[in-house]
Amino acid sequence: MYDPITMKINADPFILSALKEDITSEDVTTNSVMPKARLGEVDLICKEEGMVCGLDVFARVFELIDDEVEITLFVKDGDKVKPGEKMAKLRGDIRTLLSGERTALNYLQRMSGIATYTNAIAELLEGTGVQLLDTRKTTPNNRIFEKYAVRIGGGHNHRYNLSDGVLLKDNHIGAAGGVKEAVLMAKEYAPFVRKIEVEAENLDMVKEAIEAGADIIMLDNMTPEVMKEAIAFIDHRAEIEISGNVTKENIARIKDLGVDYVSSGALTHSAPILDISLKNLRPIN
């Protein structure tokens, strides 16, 4: 997922926080049945069809508890998996395997679910030239993991955070006094290397955004009829993104409109987890 430096700087603090959430003082259950260190093995088993993602994070959970744990992977991120498939084998102190299980699986199941759902939509867009984008509608403190899962699934990342680009939404436009005013203020303030995107809810806003020189126009929650009008008016003078309750079930209505991007918050906020378990724990010696 990441090189070791990136993992330690960006991912480790979140993983450690998740472990602290699950273990405040001790793992009472594990310490009850396993008071002393004992070597053991356990299998990582897939229980439903999907795309696996987050194996490095899964492994890192155990490594942060005990750097002597050994993890042998039989699949890699982006692989399609099926029910009953053994994806990995873990070997180490049984206390480590038990205490890290839930946190590690939470990451792996969530990230694999996002990758699986994203991939299903990306396949529907194949051949259209439309890029599938995620949004900032992510689980707090899990954005780094969820946006990575989108990429593994065949999607692309929109802004990572508020420092990443200019996106003038309805409330920004209201605060500025209008589309034209908001774009002009953004051009004056933002670095020239930043593109300026405007969220437009109707044709009048689209026209204002074009006149003000917006780089990207997001057609938000428009009917297919109004979107077609807006796209014809824009006429390649700006890049076009479609947004607003886009899901696997309804993307067919917009995929052939000839736009550049389609963004979907559902990729991260509505993807179901992929069912994965640690099974067959057995002591060694």
What does this structure look like?
Helix 3 packs antiparallel against helix 4 (94-125) and helix 4 crosses helix 5 (143-152). The chain is of the alpha/beta class and 285 residues long. The radius of gyration is 23 Å and the shape is elongated. It has helices spanning 4-22, 28-33, 55-65, 94-125, 143-152, 170-176, 179-189, 203-212, 224-234, 266-269; strands at residues 39-46, 50-51, 70-73, 80-81, 86-93, 131-133, 166-168, 196-200, 216-220, 239-243, 261-263, 276-283.
Helices and strands in order:
Elements: H1 4-22, H2 28-33, E1 39-46, E2 50-51, H3 55-65, E3 70-73, E4 80-81, E5 86-93, H4 94-125, E6 131-133, H5 143-152, E7 166-168, H6 170-176, H7 179-189, E8 196-200, H8 203-212, E9 216-220, H9 224-234, E10 239-243, E11 261-263, H10 266-269, E12 276-283
Parallel strand pairs: 6-11, 7-8, 8-9, 9-10, 10-11
Antiparallel strand pairs: 1-5, 1-12, 2-4, 3-5
Helix pairs in contact: 1-3, 3-4, 4-5, 6-7, 7-8, 8-9
